[in-house]
């Protein structure tokens, strides 16, 4: 009986593309990435798209395995996307001097994986920039952020089966989740965060253009 299990063999290189087919949908060209000033917002988009694609594949119903084990990587991808996008807005808000923080406080904040902590700074920046903004949408976003925070307060629970104290991390998971609802809810939150990010990009571009004209 032929053995169909793939085992390691001499010459294996996980990052090789020598066997790529012409116009392969799974071939990645990466040498251009370092030539662009890509920020955390770009990476946040990529993590979100990855989670979206997993859910879309599961929706097709062609895989007879249950979706249960896929929740962990999907939730991690979405959570990390949130963290990156929020931090991107914070960095730009600080750059625009919407808020003023001491350097060590900025470092501590941006090194934190607590969604609740970074959200509070994000909220301060957004409310300062848009004092007449829609609080209903901001509060609804906050509720979703807190939900993600409660599932994984440290940024470790969706990555490991046990925390540093040896406690099972799965105890913080909800009883059940409909992944299409997760995606739909996340889309709404991400659209708000992305809108803030794009507005701050515009403000930075306008400021830099003004500086180039007068200085």
Could you spell the SSE succession in H and E letters?
HHHHHH
Which word captures the global form? globular
**Residue share in helices?**
55-70%
Q: Radius of gyration over alpha carbons?
A: 21 Å
What's the domain count? Answer: 1
Strand content: under 5%
User: What is the arithmetic mean of pLDDT?
Assistant: 92
Helix-strand category: mainly alpha
Q: Which segments are poorly predicted (pLDDT under 50) over 5 or more consecutive residues?
A: none
Largest sheet: none
Number of strands: 0
Number of helices: 6
Cα end-to-end separation: 76 Å
Please provide a brief summary of the model:
This protein is mostly helical and 215 residues long.
Provide an overview of this structure.
It is a single chain. This protein is an all-alpha fold and 215 residues long. It has one domain. It is built from six helices and no strands. It has helices at residues 40-59, 71-95, 103-111, 115-129, 135-151, 179-214. Helix 4 runs antiparallel to helix 5 (135-151). The longest helix is centred in the C-terminal third of the chain and has 36 residues, at 179-214. The chain is globular.
């Amino acid at each position: 009986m032929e053995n169909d299990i793939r085992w390691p063999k001499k010459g294996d290189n996980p990052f090789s593309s020598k066997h790529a087919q012409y116009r392969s949908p799974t071939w990645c060209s990466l040498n251009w990435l370092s030539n662009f000033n890509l920020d955390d917002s770009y990476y946040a988009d990529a993590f979100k798209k990855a989670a979206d694609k997993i859910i879309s594949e599961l929706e097709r119903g062609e895989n007879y395995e249950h979706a249960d084990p896929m929740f962990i990587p999907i939730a991690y991808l979405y959570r990390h996307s949130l963290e990156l996008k929020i931090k991107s807005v914070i960095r730009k808000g600080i750059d625009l001097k919407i808020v003023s923080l001491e350097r060590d406080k900025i470092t501590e904040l941006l090194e934190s994986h607590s969604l609740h902590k970074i959200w509070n700074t994000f909220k301060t920046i957004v409310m300062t920039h848009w004092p007449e903004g829609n609080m209903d949408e901001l509060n609804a976003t906050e509720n979703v952020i807190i939900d993600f925070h409660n599932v994984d307060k440290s940024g470790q629970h969706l990555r490991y089966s046990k925390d540093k104290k040896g406690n099972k991390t799965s105890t913080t998971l909800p009883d059940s989740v409909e992944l299409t609802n997760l995606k739909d809810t996340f889309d709404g939150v991400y659209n708000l965060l992305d809108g803030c990010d794009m507005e701050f990009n515009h403000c930075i571009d306008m400021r830099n253009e003004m500086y180039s004209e007068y200085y």
